[in-house]
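May I ask for a protein sequence together with how it folds?
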Amino acid sequence: MAGNLREEGNALYKQRKFLDALPLYYQAANTDPEDYRPYLNLSAVLFELGKYKQSVEYGQKALSTMNDEVRQGVSGERVSARIAKARVVLKDADNFSTTGESKGLDPRHLPRYKPTIGRHLEFFSVGHDTPMSLLTEDMCEECPDDDRLAFFFGGIGDARHFYYTLTFFAASEYRRKTTRKIHFTLNDILPDVFARDLVFFILLDELSYETQKAPTDKATQLELDKKVATLFYLYLCPLVPTYVNDELQRVIRKTMSMLEGRGQERLPSWIYFAPVTCNTIIPLLRSWQSDVFALHSTREIQTKAKLESQKSRINIASLVDQMGMVGLHDQQETNEEKDYFATIMVSPPPRLINAFEQDLGKLLDLPRTESRLNKIEQYIGKNWKVNATMFNVASEKAGYFSDCGNNPFEFGKAVSLAVGTEHGPKQTSGLYATGYLFFSSVATALAESRDRIFVETQLGDATKLLEDTRIGLVQNRDSTWPIQYDHVHLSNVPDYVGGPVASFLYGIPILKSKSYARYSSTCLRNPSHFPTVDHFISEYLCLQDSETTRKIFPYKEPFLEGPEGPEDPADIPDLFSQSGYWSWSRIRDPPLNFTELLSRNETETWLYQLSLKTILPVPRERYSFSQIFSPLNLTIIFRVAIYLHQTGYPAHWLADALENLLANTVTTTARPARRSPLRPTDLRKPVPAKRLTFAPFLAEFRSLAAQWAPVLPFGISSTHIPTRVRRYTLNVFPLNSEDKDGHGRVPAFVLVFWNPARLGPGRMIWSMDLRKVLLPDEKGSTDPRDVRLRENGLAILAVWEFDPANDEAHFWIDEDAMEKWKREDWMVQIWRDDTYRPVSTPLPVRQVPRGSAIEGFMTSFPTNGLTEGEYWSI
């Protein structure tokens, strides 16, 4: 009886139907408990299912049931080896969420992306989105009245979505009172954004108290009008009336006093800015007091804004014509728009004109002629001020001119779309009137909900913050603040950080387990390259369709968000079909059932495909405005491995795939991408299995494995992981100024190390097709010299940091590898991996000073930024 059950189970086991075989083995063991063989079978099948503790238990039971001869034979050796491997992968499997005795930097703080080498990030002070509320009707209906909702805004920008969410909250409370509270986490990578937003928060806080009482006299009404005008003009316009600038300077003085702790005033209780953020904001506020006005005159900005506005409108009209969208830009400009584009002035309301600018009022009343516009332009150039909050002085001095060509009427139209719904102010005529009602509504909403909202600001990369929040790595964050959210909104951040990787790895997992919880993201930079969501996923995640993707990332079919709810993509022109906000949500919490997973072969193939796509991106045109970035580095493989383990994928699948990469023994049907964007059909195309070498990337991958080993939720048994990794600093790299200043903001820079002796006589590395040399597949070079170089003379590093102020590169590498490169007189140089061209002077590796050590799989990292010894120099 037991033998028949085992035979039936073995047949299923060979077909990899492990779940079907399992109950048969249990029955066999119960039928004949003195027979070791059912225990062997149970140990094996439980191991394959990822049940390692149970596999060890039954393996030990098998050993204890065997006689000495069997125990010392093949069966005994096999089960002992399985027990040993199970114990390896079990390492820390239940304690991933903590960092144990780790001190200093955790390896999860290693750079996620290839570095940029530009000195400054781009600063766009005004957004383009139609304001949308993250709070929705279904949330209001399903969320308990006494619950706390939590919203995360990644790339908060001008905060229009936050403002509209606030007004929606107040409107929902007006219809039905609750005791519900909301926690907002506002994030941006630029301190300029938070400096600007804080000015608006302070103004709105002041205005919120004044909106609670009706003005008693003209003077009070005038002060109220000035605050709203200050909000309006600072938010939208590059030039502002003098009284608006006076109000700005008052708020700056007040805000700086709050941040520096001078006097009695502190930030409003509903706002939190971390000390490190305050320290970055204060210099920006100070620069808005005088530095901007020393740098730019009103007339200069007036001229610049006119030219940029004209160029922008021409480009949009050309794009619309190319798309064949007849009639989209045929709408005639209003008189107000004509006045603005000729003078860069939005007309103030009559009360403020009568109080402060009667001369301007007389000019506005003149007959509509060219002479009238010239006079208004001259008046504005002489009497108005530059909107200091739109400019970053440090960037300007470095040659980066801030954008001031935004069309303020886009905001008016966007608000009109949003407030066309029942939530918010009614539509009105004139841009100022629309803005007045918008900001008045926000201030009123703040007055009604001040005690029930809290705004936490976090400076830095959005995806890093999402991941760090979920696993508790955000420093000095209050333990009562949420670590899961009802809605995460990620502006256009995914365009620059790896597409849906950010959504699936960091955004969706941080959502609450609620039916209404969702994650919003957009592809704004290059939507024309992606006709469907599957195309978008294919390019960035190397997954061929939604069905396959959901076996790794269990999400519901996304829908396009609109100001009045979901939109039909069929109603949107193809070029823009992916440029809206897609709303994602998860089907359920992990882990998935074993039957819902990809097969082991599919999982390994995907990991190899993702690795190849990451290390060998397709060449791309760096001047293209819609260039598809390839920003990820090899840390993504370890982050994905952790995610897969949490999702239910067996640890030994993942450990074996990583070991194959470490040992350079990968045989696979995966291939490096052969075009950009990578399409679903490319991934479905049958390809024969082939042994691929990862030799040029092994030094980095092995060094990363040494650093990641302590925090992986499973163990890896490998002789290829170095025991000593050091952090090195290279100083100084002379850089191509065009790449540093003009195109250095693209995350496309890698360190290329090479052995000149392996190049061959008369050959220079910068005259070669480097990608063809690196390609390990059928498309790679077969020249014996290139093959020799690929196998033993090249190393590519993408996990490094660049300090643009000092032209220093910091990277982490196996000390033994570095010493070998020094002995063999290797060279190093910064290259772009979009053009596969060098951007710096080559330098000899032997001049690299010995760095700070990271030993023995430590989780502790050095925090000093400089190494000891002689720096590289020219």
Remarks:
- The first strand starts at residue 148 and ends at 154.
- The CA atoms of residues 9 and 21 lie 4 Å apart.
- The chain has four domains: 2-89, 107-112+462-702, 137-459, 722-855.
- The chain has 36 helices and 21 strands.
